[in-house]
Amino acid sequence: MRNLLMTVCYDGTSYYGFQTQPGGNTIQDCLEAAIRHLTGEVVKIHGSGRTDAGVHARAQPFHFITSSQIPVERWCLALNARLPADIRVTAAEEVELDFHARRSAKRKTYRYTINANRVPDVFQRNYQLHHPGRLNISAMQKGLSYLIGTNDYTSFASRHSTKASHVRTIDEARIEVDTSLARPESRDQGVVHLYISGNGFLQHMVRIIVGTLLEVGQGKRLPEEMKQILEAKDRKAAGPTAESKGLMLWSVEYD
């Protein structure tokens, strides 16, 4: 038996997230079907984590146990020939049998993208939240800084979260602004990318953080209120959940 670790990227627009759901049409369903078509095996893959419906991934690891002797260097090409065009396996390697894509992960990074130009980008509309109103980016960055550290993030977790503990560690959080497509002498602010890294994330956590930061950017909340929201440990204290389409799993790191 072999344990294969692969990395997949996907456009999540048409899917109900990564993990298998009763209604089907998930990234996991497509990957398992492609493996079955290729090897004849019925396998269960294990992802580095879940993504919600409509969320994308630049690099999401998953692993599975197989008895297939297909050389590791042939897997990407073979699976991609059997996958939809919006899902692509980008890397494959053989790992120790006790390796687990989720439990072995040490750090994850998500990116959330906000188009703060007056006119949305028609080509990036499925990957960006469009917000044409003026945003105070520096206030958003200051508010974000209050979330760094090891904390109970209940205020930024879905009410449906089933995790026994909501304590997580965020070790880095930053905002980058790309003004290359902002029109001169306009109210365009560019494309805002929020990167957030930590040892794990709760259901809807990044999207709730973004929804709350947008209120800070609009002047509806002070940056310092992020600390108070965090300490409240109450979902009602935070802002709305931002749309899923702006979120992308950026990277997952292992030892």
User: Which strand-content bin applies to the residues?
Assistant: 25-35%
Tell me, what's the shape? globular
Q: What assembly state would you assign to the polypeptide chains in this entry?
A: single chain
Instruction: Supply Rg.
Output: 19 Å
Please tally the β strands and state the result. Answer: 10
Number of domains: 2
Mean pLDDT: 97
User: What is the H level of CATH, i.e. the homologous superfamily of the largest domain?
Assistant: Pseudouridine synthase I, catalytic domain, C-terminal subdomain
Number of helices: 5
Q: Can you identify the CATH class of the largest domain?
A: Alpha Beta
CATH third-tier fold name of the largest domain:
Alpha-Beta Plaits
Order of helices and strands: EHEEHEEEHEEEHHE
Q: What's the story with the biggest beta sheet?
A: 10 strands, mixed
EC number: 5.4.99.12
Keywords: Isomerase, tRNA processing
Subunit structure: Homodimer.
Binding site for substrate: 110
Structure characterization notes:
There is one protein chain. α3 crosses α4. The chain is α+β, with helices and mostly antiparallel strands and 255 residues long. It starts with a strand and ends with a strand. It folds into 2 domains: 2-95, Pseudouridine synthase I, catalytic domain, N-terminal subdomain (Alpha-Beta Plaits, 2-Layer Sandwich), CATH 3.30.70.580; 107-253, Pseudouridine synthase I, catalytic domain, C-terminal subdomain (Alpha-Beta Plaits), CATH 3.30.70.660. It has helices at residues 27-39, 75-80, 137-145, 205-217, 225-232; strands at residues 2-10, 46-47, 56-66, 87-95, 107-115, 129-130, 149-152, 167-178, 191-198, 247-253. Strands 1, 2, 3, 4, 5, 6, 7, 8, 9 and 10 form a 10-stranded mixed sheet that branches.
